[in-house]
């Protein structure tokens, strides 16, 4: 047997290794051994070098069937040719070295019979994150991936698997003979040493041009991190920017702004930067808060002796970098060139220290060109090519040709790194474009056709590849036909200007994915899926991500049909599409370890369920019909009247209807917010109230400034939606207001003209924890003389943050507060009372005859609760807990037929403790009990009558068609129910 083995080895060694190609494997036969170093001196780095060897061992076996042995270098006897992986001793003996290699530089060399695969390897500089591969430089692993692609018929196509080991995303097709040219030598330093964004998985990133810059401690908006508003605003308000005479308090606290001339502020920002440098980070970053607001104090105005804030920020960050160079030599400082600092310095071209990198966002070419005159180490460029913050939402963003142009445009300009902002939301559906873009960051000239062909063959197999290729090409045609805007022109720093919503997702999808296009895509996709191996590891994820696109497009197209010629039938179909999408999203798998996130192993990637429901964020939010309670919008279109009053103190206000404002977004928290309408011979008067934080009460904003960044009331007024109307917004301070003339434009953003200024007035005060406001609008401020028609159209809203109209009177269908679909009618003068049909139900008035709870009693005892009858009184005792209601089929149901319907429950109670009253709702053939907002009622020994009234437009009913009356009881002694009565009033 030993003789046969030696004979076989001799035969392999006699294979023609001296010809044009060296044979590594021929079928299952191979003479080679994979050899890895004993140690590099850093065990975590050793793991990934060894993994490179294991991966080569794996792909060779998968391609040809040959099983190569893998050994440490000290165990290798030298009796076979070898594939030496990493910086081995044999590498040095062969006259090769990676010592002078740059980051991620790698090489493949053939010396005699031996093959060397090696590269620049650096461990993580962080002790606490030493195992994290994103903080290492794995040049050897990059070389091994390149070897597998070039010689072993392998591609790395799955970015969903983050396992630092062998997995299905390493795709190898059969290749009986594996060869490499004799005397072959390959060496490459990537054009960009960092091209990452989201973490996509070790092998996918390294193989496909998504390398990570190991050891960075980036923090783009470091000012806000250094001086948290929650920690410092109360104790040190002088740290924060003085704006309009007040220290600025940022709503939400994510992007506060500072008095940067304050020495203590400067020191806090520096110490935060230094603390990151002292962790061992190779690069740290400094940058101002997003949506930068400059301080208006005298010291800040005089700071650095320059007027422009862009120059002040450049000088400050330059000085911080110089201090880091002294205190932490060798640490590079990345300075954000973003927002105001996209205007380059004019007072200097030389930084004080040689450790500066510029972080440019976005990469406008005149800025990249202008930076070439500065003494910098290089440029990191932010790109905005993918991501759910764009109108494409969770779907493919840009076509192949556009991505290839974008990638090519980044070559040169001293760009050393790229941060791809916000990408990878649909990695299976958008996979071909991710794959191609990464490859173009390494070689900008590879044909898109070849990359798509590779992706399909190695992802879906030879049989299904042509069909999937046809499907992805059809999508690419749509991406090209309806493109996103130029990503180098977007100003993401302009948070107040609303430029980020210049394109809305719904009309964008209506153009990109119309019904006829979706029919074609469905056919191509179904054909491809039918040809694919059902066991393909990413097939279900791909199907899920495409199904999301289908359902979103179905709503957008149904909305277009409805908008073109509205009627109830079309609206019902639109609602059906919304319901189908909501049901689909509810079925998606949630990550057990990250509540509220999708399980990225099954579909999507690092995506929140709430973001999927919204469609995305910023430009990607669908809004409108995707968010609202569409059933309520159809069944409860609101209209009201303005009562005749002399002024705001007139007792006649008691006759005015009070309307609650409801959340625009379904599922948002309810808050106390309401209004009443009045009028006199001079104009319209509106009383408003809402729960709002007091911190913004003192804020003073210049007229037509960003009032909506604070708690504010938002009012839209029209006499005719086809003609210009008025848009009024005001915050607590009487001078903080915005007004404009607004015009609706079909399928476009509303046209607002803030140059229009009316003579309207408002006053505010705090009463019992509520902000109460009085608004007077003279008739002259209306777009027409509304006294002739005695009516006008209006929308009333309130917002707690920068979301305009988060709480509204009516619910618009298109996602914007000022919308024709959200306008209700206001009539000047109280209308004559409509004829009403009244039904009364007197329940349980004769409890004495009952031996058990009556037929329609809706609160049943449970647990230790006891009940009995004393004459005509139902008695509950030991009611120290809530009583859980359980409705039966025999219980009565009351049907709301219009928004004007009202139901009133009257209960006569006595006893000890408390009682609550509520309403049960009917939803999808299921009773949902006590979803009302009842208050606690203290009981006494004397019977007392209590009333609870509501209608289908009530916030808590949310458009329910049916309800059942119910009472919740709780107390610490005995509760007696003397009478239970329901009155249903239906107005025509």
Q: How would you describe this protein?
A:
The chain has 988 residues and is an alpha+beta fold. The protein contains 21 helices and 45 strands. The relative contact order is 0.05.
**How can the largest sheet be summarized?**
14 strands, mixed
The total count of strands amounts to: 45
- Cα-based radius of gyration, to the nearest Å: 35 Å
**Total of DSSP H or I helical runs spanning 4+ residues:** 21
Our measurement of the CA-to-CA distance between the termini, rounded to an integer number of angstroms, reads: 101 Å
Helix percentage: 25-40%
- Average pLDDT, all residues: 85
Low-confidence regions: 1-18, 495-502, 854-865, 879-891
- The coarse overall form would be globular
Percent of residues in β-strands: 15-25%
Helix and strand composition category? alpha+beta
Keywords:
globular; alpha+beta; 988 residues; 14-stranded mixed sheet; 45 strands
Write the layout of secondary structure elements.
Blueprint: H1 2-13, E1 21-26, E2 33-36, H2 43-64, E3 69-72, E4 82-85, H3 89-93, E5 106-111, E6 114-119, E7 121-122, E8 137-138, H4 139-151, E9 154-156, E10 170-172, E11 177-181, E12 185-188, H5 202-207, E13 216-217, H6 222-226, H7 229-232, E14 242-243, E15 246-247, H8 263-277, E16 283-286, H9 298-302, H10 309-327, E17 332-338, E18 356-361, H11 365-370, E19 378-383, H12 400-409, E20 415-420, H13 431-440, H14 448-481, H15 505-512, H16 515-531, H17 539-564, H18 568-586, H19 609-614, H20 630-635, E21 639-644, E22 659-660, E23 662-663, E24 673-679, E25 683-690, E26 712-718, E27 725-730, E28 737-743, E29 751-753, E30 761-767, E31 770-778, H21 786-789, E32 791-799, E33 807-808, E34 824-828, E35 836-843, E36 866-870, E37 873-877, E38 894-895, E39 902-911, E40 914-923, E41 926-928, E42 937-938, E43 944-950, E44 962-970, E45 974-987
Parallel strand pairs: 2-3, 2-4, 4-6, 13-16, 16-17, 17-18, 18-19, 19-20, 21-24, 21-34
Antiparallel strand pairs: 1-11, 5-6, 5-12, 7-8, 9-10, 14-15, 22-24, 23-33, 24-25, 25-31, 26-27, 26-32, 27-28, 28-29, 30-31, 32-33, 32-34, 35-45, 36-37, 37-45, 38-44, 39-43, 39-45, 40-41, 40-42, 40-44
Helix pairs in contact: 2-4, 8-10, 12-13, 13-14, 14-16, 15-17, 16-17, 17-18
């Amino acid at each position: 047997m030993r003789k046969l083995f030696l004979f076989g080895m001799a035969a392999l060694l006699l294979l023609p290794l001296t010809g044009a190609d060296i044979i590594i494997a021929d079928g299952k036969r191979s003479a080679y051994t994979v050899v890895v170093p004993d140690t590099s001196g850093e065990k975590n780095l050793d793991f990934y070098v060894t993994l490179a060897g294991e991966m080569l061992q794996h792909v060779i076996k998968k391609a040809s069937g040959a099983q190569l042995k893998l050994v440490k270098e000290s165990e290798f006897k030298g009796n076979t040719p070898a594939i030496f992986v990493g910086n081995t001793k044999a590498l040095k003996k062969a006259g090769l070295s990676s010592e002078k290699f740059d980051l991620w530089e790698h090489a493949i060399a053939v010396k005699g019979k031996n093959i060397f695969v090696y590269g620049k390897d650096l461990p993580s500089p962080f002790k606490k994150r030493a195992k994290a591969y994103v903080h290492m430089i794995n040049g050897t692993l990059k070389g091994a991936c390149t070897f597998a692609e070039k010689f072993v018929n392998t591609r790395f196509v799955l970015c969903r698997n983050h396992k630092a080991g062998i997995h299905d995303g390493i795709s190898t097709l059969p290749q009986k003979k594996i060869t490499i040219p004799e005397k072959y030598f390959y060496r490459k330093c990537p054009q960009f040493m960092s091209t990452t964004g989201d973490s996509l998985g070790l092998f996918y990133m390294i193989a496909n041009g998504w390398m990570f810059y190991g050891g960075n401690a980036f923090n783009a908006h470091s000012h806000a991190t250094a001086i948290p508003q929650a920690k410092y605003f109360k104790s040190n308000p002088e740290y924060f920017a003085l704006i309009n005479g007040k220290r600025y308090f940022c709503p939400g606290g994510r992007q506060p702004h500072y008095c940067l001339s304050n020495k203590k502020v400067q020191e806090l920002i520096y110490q935060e930067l230094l603390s990151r440098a002292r962790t061992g980070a190779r690069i740290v970053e400094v940058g101002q808060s997003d949506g930068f607001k400059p301080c208006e104090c005298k010291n800040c105005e005089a700071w650095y002796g320059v007027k422009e804030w862009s120059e002040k920020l450049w000088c400050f960050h330059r000085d911080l970098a110089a201090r880091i160079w002294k205190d932490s030599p060798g640490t590079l400082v990345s300075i954000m060139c973003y927002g105001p600092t996209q205007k380059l310095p004019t007072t200097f071209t030389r930084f004080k220290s040689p450790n500066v990198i510029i972080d440019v966002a976005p990469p406008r070419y005149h800025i990249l060109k202008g930076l070439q005159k500065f003494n910098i180490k290089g440029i990191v460029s932010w790109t905005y090519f993918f991501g759910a913050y764009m109108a494409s939402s969770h779907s493919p963003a840009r076509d192949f040709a556009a991505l290839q142009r974008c990638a090519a445009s980044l070559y040169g300009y001293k760009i050393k790194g790229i941060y791809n902002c916000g990408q990878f939301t649909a990695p299976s559906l958008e996979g071909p474009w991710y794959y191609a873009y990464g490859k173009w960051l390494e070689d900008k000239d590879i044909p898109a056709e070849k990359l798509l062909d590779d992706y399909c063959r190695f992802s879906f197999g030879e049989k299904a590849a042509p069909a999937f290729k046809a499907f992805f090409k059809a999508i690419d045609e749509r991406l090209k036909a309806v493109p996103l805007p130029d990503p180098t022109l977007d100003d993401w720093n302009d948070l107040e200007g609303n430029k980020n919503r210049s394109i809305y997702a719904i009309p964008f999808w209506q153009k990109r994915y119309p019904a006829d296009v979706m029919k074609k895509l469905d056919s191509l996709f179904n054909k491809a899926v039918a040809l694919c191996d059902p066991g393909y590891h990413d097939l279900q994820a791909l199907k899920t991500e495409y199904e999301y696109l289908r359902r979103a497009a179905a709503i957008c197209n149904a909305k277009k049909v409805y908008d073109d010629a509205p009627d109830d039938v079309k609206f019902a179909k639109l609602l059906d599409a919304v319901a189908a999408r909501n049901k689909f999203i509810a079925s998606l798998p949630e990550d057990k370890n990250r509540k509220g996130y999708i399980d990225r192993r099954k579909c999507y990637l690092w995506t929140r369920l709430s973001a999927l429901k919204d469609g995305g964020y910023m430009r990607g939010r669908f809004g409108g019909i995707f968010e609202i309670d569409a059933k309520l919008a159809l069944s409860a279109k609101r209209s009201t009247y303005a009562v005749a009053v002399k002024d705001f103190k007139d007792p006649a206000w008691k006759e005015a209807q009070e309307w609650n404002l409801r959340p625009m977004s379904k599922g948002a928290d309810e808050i106390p917010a309401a209004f009443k309408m009045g009028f006199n011979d001079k104009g319209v008067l509106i009383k408003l109230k809402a729960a709002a934080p007091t911190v913004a009460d003192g804020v003073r904003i210049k007229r037509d400034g960003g009032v909506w960044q604070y708690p504010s009331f938002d009012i839209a007024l029209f006499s005719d939606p086809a003609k210009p109307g008025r848009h009024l917004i005001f915050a607590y301070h009487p001078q903080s207001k915005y007004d404009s003339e607004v015009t609706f434009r079909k399928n476009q953003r509303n046209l607002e003209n803030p140059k229009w200024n009316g003579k309207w007035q408002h006053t505010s005060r705090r009463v019992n924890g509520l902000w109460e406001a009085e608004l007077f609008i003279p008739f002259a401020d209306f777009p027409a003389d509304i006294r002739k028609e005695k009516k006008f159209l209006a929308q009333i809203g309130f917002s707690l943050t920068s979301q305009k109209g988060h709480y509204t009177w009516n619910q618009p269908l298109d996602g914007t507060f000022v919308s024709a679909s959200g306008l209700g009618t206001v009539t000047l003068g109280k209308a004559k009372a409509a004829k009403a049909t009244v039904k009364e139900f007197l329940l349980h008035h004769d409890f004495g005859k009952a031996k058990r709870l009556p037929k329609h009693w809706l609160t049943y005892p449970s647990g230790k609760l006891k009940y009995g009858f004393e004459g005509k009184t139902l008695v509950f005792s030991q009611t120290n807990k809530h009583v859980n209601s359980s409705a039966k089929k025999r219980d009565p149901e009351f049907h709301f037929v219009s928004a004007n319907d009202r139901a009133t429950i009257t209960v006569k109670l006595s006893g000890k403790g408390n009682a609550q009253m509520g309403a049960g709702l009917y939803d999808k053939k299921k009773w949902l009990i006590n979803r009302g907002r009842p208050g606690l009622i203290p009981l006494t020994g004397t019977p007392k009558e209590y009333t609870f009234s509501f209608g289908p437009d009530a916030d808590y009913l949310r458009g329910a068609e049916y309800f059942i009356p119910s009472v919740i009881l709780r107390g610490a002694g005995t509760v007696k129910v003397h009478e239970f009565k329901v009155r249903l009033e239906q107005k025509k």
